[in-house]
Amino acid sequence: MGLRTKFNLAILGAFLIGFGATSFLQLQVLWSNARADVIANARVMMAAATAIRNYTTDSITPLVGYEREGKFLSVSVPSYAAHSNFRRVQAEFPEYSYKEATLNPTNPADRAVDWEADIIRAFRSAGAKAELVIERETPTGPSLVLAKPLVVGNESCLVCHSVPGAAPEAMTKIYGTANGFGWKLKEIVGAQIVSLPLSVALKQAQSTFLLSTGVLATVFVLMAVILNVMLHYFVTLPVTRMSNIATKISLGDPNAEEISEKGKDEVAGLAVAFNRMRRSLERAIKLLDEPG
Asked: How far apart are CA 153 and CA 135, in angstroms?
């Protein structure tokens, strides 16, 4: 096995080990950053939904009440306001979703499905847990879910959800008296749930990963070419020349040329030493050839 082959195998082995470790760590960091970005966006959307709820509770409901002229005013309901606002966002970002899932809702559309009910039960068992982040597989790809507990925070909520007799008559005419009642103050009755797609962020992370690994591989190839050229001209070629001259000398060729001693590197130092050894050898042979 030649010197160049050994050199290239060593460089290739070091590259493969470094490339594998670097790629693995980089992919983990990119996926972690992509997930963190999606969570940050989810928190912004959650904060916007909560702000709409609070504004409705503090400003709209006290001003207009829950019914007027026998009609139930849905705009006074914080959940309705948050959902209505989010539907406008969803018109531009259809893959995003927001739901105030409840175990015992007034509106059947808000009833929690199996996985949403699990989140609500998790909040109930955890007590003071502020939020929950999970990942789900959906027909369109992986989705990140951010959830916060819905707590009956003040007495105004119980106007519509304590007992049917206390609820606005206009509301019970629409939704009936079977659901949405029996809530208690400070009780966790549901969860605000924001779902965002992970697929877009992961694809961007994957594109960045492929680009960076492609650049890294290109740099390695260029470095390997440059190192091989340097190895050829500064090491392999001079050593081969020395080897050929040494072979001629060993075969008794008196016309073998001297090795060039240009430069101040280790190979040039070897050439100087070789030429000195050759001259010493020639002098020794002459002394042996001289008579008595």
From this structure: 28
